Model the fold of this input.
Amino acid sequence: MRWAFAALLGLGALAACGERAPNVYPQSAHERFNMSCPPESAACVCTWDRITRTVTYEEYEAALSRFRETGLMDPRITRAKTQCLERHRE
Done:
């Protein structure tokens, strides 16, 4: 019994160290993203994955609004895009 409990604790610790699960986004947001960054591109797939794991849909929409108004993008989104472009040079 103790072994099973220890195993469960170990699995929980490993899960805590893993990557966050993606936040929920509506399909329409992904479709809009794909209009400017095609899903055939590994960098685009990576960028969308990182964005959805980093910011909530509400934060993403606020970042896009600020970008349209000021030309400044949320650093978390810029970081996600940069990391993916560097990793997936095409």
In short: The first helix runs from residue 2 to 17. The two ends are 52 Å apart (CA to CA). Residues 2-16 have pLDDT under 50 and may be disordered.
